Amino acid sequence: MQALTREVLLDRAKALFADGTVDRAYGWKRGEFDYDVTPGLFRSVEEMEKEFVFDDFCGANFSKYLVEETRKGEGKILVFLKPCDTYSFNQLLTEHRFDREKVYAVGIPCEGMADVTKLKAEAAEGIRSITAEKEGFVVHTLYDGDKTVPRTEGLSERCLVCKSKKHVAYDELLGEDGEVADSARFDEVARLEAMNADERFAFWQRELSRCIRCNACRDVCPACTCETCVFNNPNSGVESKAPVTSFEEQMFHIIRAFHVAGRCTDCGECSRVCPQHIPLHLLNRKFIKDINAFYGEYQAGAEVGSRAPLVNYTTADLEPGEAVQRGNEHA
Amino acid sequence: MRKIAVAKLDALFAAMAKTHTVYLPADGADGRAQYTRWEAGVVYSTALNTVRSAKDFFFPQTENLMDFKMEGKSIELIDTRDEGEDFIVFGVRACDVRSFDVLDRVFLAEPVDSYYAARRAHGVIFSMACTRPAETCFCKTFGIDAAEPAGDVACYIDADTLYLDAKTEKGEAVLAALGLEDSDTAAVDAQKALIRERLDALPLSGLSAAAFGGDKLDEYFERPEWKTLSETCLGCGTCTFVCPTCQCYDIRDFKTNTGVRRYRCWDSCMYSEFTKMSAGQPRLTQLERFRQRFMHKLVYYPANNDGIFGCVGCGRCLSRCPISMNIVKVMKTLGGKNV
């Protein structure tokens, strides 16, 4: 259950529409079922009253949508940002990807968002409805009665290892701000590092072989905002709609991870949207963990305008040879 | 109608494998079902459906078409097709079986796609009735009966017994060679009644496609709702790639060391470079691309195919779309009370 109700957010949105602060708002739209919430752009209070929803299924991060939407119209856009979303928001600002003046950001606390796949796995095929109770998610199934999934088992992986409950960007905050958490998010990376090279290769081959090259990971990623992606550009010479070989799909993901290294805030959207449930965030987290180890703790998006270690030079920087040597220790 | 004990499934698959390569849904390392080549130890999955559809068997995501070998000024065309082998796809759900009809009308119409036709000729479909349809299922909307799946052989699992009902000569030939025990239809008839009861109780059971069809172009093309429906679409290809009926592809040349390999791969109308020509992409924004996909399923396809819809209600896009936008929401938004 979230600390704030839909009504608190809706009342604030109504006031911001009414006093002319904003003329449209990004928010979550009610779906066909309890869990299939769609991120949407609302243009009026009436639309919001009808369809706006805020609950445990509102994982979508709106930050990237601002890149295109702020180019339209003169008015401001209201956007609700959960703590992790604010890091993407700041990172996009650091990269000058949208006009801050066109946005009114309202920070909202987050108690973690559900992973519907986990709930579906618990409830076999049919879900009639889901209610979030204190003891967990109560899944009312079509064929097997009610099943209670403890909250810690129904939340998304990224929420179970939440890196921060603190908002790093907002115009106003609803509810309480939290703290940067002492997260266990690198444990899984450490487990992969402990493998030998063959085991690790086998792990990634098994995971990445499921890829269908739908590009959802790239298209949702707030760090992937190239106007035309190299893989969509016929003039790039590497345009590719589908992999010719399985090696190619591995290359796609590894190249993408390199491209967002140092800019990825670890928002986890890539893994959330992957239809094949490939743990893509682990590639990004490996880079984050290495950057922390080699150049000192750095969190992309923590502040606007920060110089990321990979695009900065200091005399204390690690010598390339030393990086190679440390890399070899994991081989 | 024939039958065999579920406990003897492995023996059944082994017998089939003597003459055919057998594919069936099996749970992968990620715990979710995908079509897998049967070999000893592969266990038939009880999952309702696979993440990827069964269209891959006839229309794979990438497929080599031919090679060109260049020497001096001469170009040699090499047909790289192999002979192909007889295969059985076991456990295909009624929705996916219908998707083969949808694909047939495209690939088997003149000029016949010989690559697709060869695979269809080699394939035998064992369908499986759905005793536990999910909330995302809406095959009934398109006149599909999950209690009476089509295919070459329709299968039913009731308690400890698998029942097999040959629907075509091809299916009968395969079954006859397996030497199975004959059975009456009592258990299957009871199951069909149960399935139909469950289909009627699904949340989407009332969804009607009557408001759509080949004559509805003018009614829907310029509707303002396309804007809000498509506004947050990421433009990824998830819906098209998990869809059992999406059939668009691109043909590409790949430079090898000795020549050129021509292959085709799935394409998606959601992509910005889809059908890009020298004059550019005819659908300039995501609104037009999004509209194309749903109009194709609900209007253009039926217009060209005797009123048959290009959607089979499998529900994969309902489960997989990153923004949970899908054909049901589109139908309800555009069709209003008529849906």
Your description of this structure?
The complex is a heterodimer of chains A (331) and B (339). By secondary structure, chain A is α/β, with parallel strands linked by helices. Chain A is built from 14 helices and 9 strands. Chain A has helices at 6-18, 45-51, 65-69, 83-94, 116-122, 151-154, 157-160, 187-193, 197-208, 216-220, 246-260, 269-273, 281-295, 320-329; strands spanning 24-29, 38-42, 52-53, 77-81, 103-107, 127-133, 136-141, 146-149, 172-173. In chain A, the strands form 2 sheets. In chain A, strands 1, 2, 3, 4, 5 and 9 form a 6-stranded mixed β-sheet that branches. Chain A has a 3-stranded antiparallel β-sheet with strand order 6-7-8. The longest helix of chain A is centred in the C-terminal third of the chain and has 15 residues, at 246-260. Chain A starts with 5 loop residues before the first helix and ends with a helix. The model of chain A has no long low-confidence stretch (mean pLDDT 92). Chain B is α+β, with helices and mostly antiparallel strands and 339 residues long. Chain B is globular, with a radius of gyration of 22 Å. The two termini of chain B are 38 Å apart. Chains A and B meet through strand 2 and helix 10 of A and helix 8, strand 11, strand 12, helix 10 and helix 11 of B.
